Amino acid sequence: MLENTGNEIFNFASEFLADAGKNVVIVPHENPDGDAVGSAIGLAQILKNSGQNVYVLSPNDYPDFLKWFSSEIEVAIFERERKRAKKWLEAADLMICVDFNDAKRAARLEKEILAFSKPKLLIDHHPNPVYFCDYTVSETAYSSTAELVYDFITQIGFEKYLDHNAAEALYTGILTDTGSFSHNTSRPNVFKVVAELMKFGINTDKIQSNIYHNFSAGRMKLLGYCLNKKMEVFPELRSAVISITKAELEKFNFKPGDTEGFVNYPLSINNIVFSALFIEKEGLVKASFRSKGNFPANAFAKNHFNGGGHVNAAGGESKEDLKKTIRLFKQLLVQYKHQLLETII
Questions:
Q1: Which of 52, 229, 327, 343 could be bridged to 295 by S-S, CB 3.0 to 4.6 A?
Q2: According to CATH, where is 3.10.310.30 located in the chain?
């Protein structure tokens, strides 16, 4: 099933983790989403159950709707707990990076990752990996890193250490990266893994509610404002864009994670195949792209916004101000008109 992963990686992992008492640090990418957090905590729980000392070190904080897990794995936020993080890194025998394909995606932790001298293992499903780790598990056919983590631990004989808490976290990763199973689900394996995870008695209705029905009133008002006032639709180009300024975020008491999923809403419009979300941050503009069919959101992000990702889900950034960024995006849409019109959904 893991077509791109050689036996030497499985052998290393199984042999290295055979003896209990190893210190392991698991690192997700910056601004971790459900897959990053779920994969990190799920894998951490499995390794802890095997007798290892495991910690999750996140570059920065993650949304409140991802802080309800049953697992009590210790998580440190590097942005505000650098002394604690340094202590963990110095003691670690192994670093495992999950859900990102380039050390740059860890942003604040990039230097620490590259400087880590002990073995490093990457487990990820994004295309075009940068080989910054000693061992790389890169399987782009997978719906999510969480699904990949399940198959990886099974491959090295660690499925016996799965429990309710680990299954809950891994299921969350799969659920969020497939948009509640609305995309990236063409392979039967994703449902096979979900079926195995459900055997541990996880409450899937509760997980769904905790993630998708757990927002603040401010977030809902921000969403309504964006759809009503900030969404521009270009039916002749089968595209749409939403832009948000710093002042608008402040007006609606923005918290990390509040704009999660906003970029998907324009794709619900009939015949729209490409959607973009631009958010004004300090010194740059963050970009998110979503597409349908074979329109390559990742190539668009890579070519014009210093980013990348999956064919239908990608991200990037712009050093220009928000107005110039939106102007550039609109100009680019015209250049891609032929491809957008030919996209089959």
A1: 343
A2: 217-342
